[in-house]
Amino acid sequence: MDDTPDDSAALLQLLGAPGSAVFLDFDGTLVDLASTPDGVRLEGGVVEALALLAERHGGALALISGRPIAQIDAMLAPLTLPVAGVHGVERRDADGVLHVAATPDVSPVLARARALAAIYPGLLVEHKRGAVALHYRLAPELEQLCVHEMTAAVQACPGVLLLHGKMVLEAKPASTDKGGAIAAFMVEAPFAGRRPVFAGDDTTDEAGFAFVQQAGGQGVKVGKGPSAATLRLASPGALRTALLAASVSPFKE
C-alpha cells in the first residue's frame, strides 16, 4: 500500500488561484519516468491542459527541466511555453528571448562517461549544453562504479557540480540551478508579483522548492523520498489529474 501523502486538494486550490505563477518539472512530474529519456510519453490531454492553464494565468506557467529546451518543445509541440532547460543553463522567457549562461568545460567528464558506457552497454550518456548525464537505469548494479567515475571526473573540472538524481548522475555548472531559473522568471512579466508554485520529483528540484518557499510560495514533491517541499503528491498521475481539473475549473480567490 502506498502511504505517500496526497495534497492534491491543496495543489488544485493553488493552481486555481488567480495570483499563482506555475512552474513544473518534466520527467517524473508531468510524465512518468521511462527506461531511457527518449522513452517517456505525454498522456493525452496534458498539452491542452497546460495551454489552458497558461492562458488563465496570463502566461505565467513555465517548465523547469534538466532536459534541453529543444527536447521540451518537441514533446509539447505545437505548444510553446517559457522554459528553463539543463537546470537553468538555457532559459527562454515569456517574450521568447533565449538566455544562455556561461558554462565550464565538461569535455573531460564527457570523455570519461563515454569510455565507461563503451565498456558497459547498459549505460547511457547524454551530452547537453554545459552538462553531461550518465544514466544507469538499465544497469542499476553499476551505481557505485558510476558514482566513483563521475565523482572523480567532476573533481578535475572546476565549476562543475555532480547531481545525484533518480538512476542518473549529472555533471552541470555549479553556478546554475532550478531555483535560480525560477528566480529569473519571477522578476519578469507575467510572473512578477505572483505567488510561485513549483512541482518536481527529484533531488535536482530541491533548489526550486527552496526558492519558491522562501518567496512565499509552495513546493510540491511528486513521489517518495525526503524533500523540503511542503506539499506532496503520490505520482505524476496525481499531478496530471490536478492540472486537468484546474485548467477547466473556475478561478477561486
TrEMBL record:
Pathway: Glycan biosynthesis; trehalose biosynthesis
Cofactor: Mg(2+)
SUPFAM superfamilies xrefs: HAD-like
Chemical reaction(s) catalysed: alpha,alpha-trehalose 6-phosphate + H2O = alpha,alpha-trehalose + phosphate
Catalytic EC class: hydrolase
GO molecular function: trehalose-phosphatase activity
Entry keyword Metal-binding: yes
EC number: 3.1.3.12
InterPro entries, sorted: HAD-like_sf (IPR036412), HAD-SF_hydro_IIB (IPR006379), HAD_sf (IPR023214), OTSB-like (IPR044651), Trehalose_PPase (IPR003337)
Protein keywords: Hydrolase, Magnesium, Metal-binding
Function statement: Removes the phosphate from trehalose 6-phosphate to produce free trehalose.
Sequence similarity: Belongs to the trehalose phosphatase family.
Name of the protein described by the UniProt record: Trehalose 6-phosphate phosphatase
Source species of the chain: Janthinobacterium rivuli
Gene label: otsB
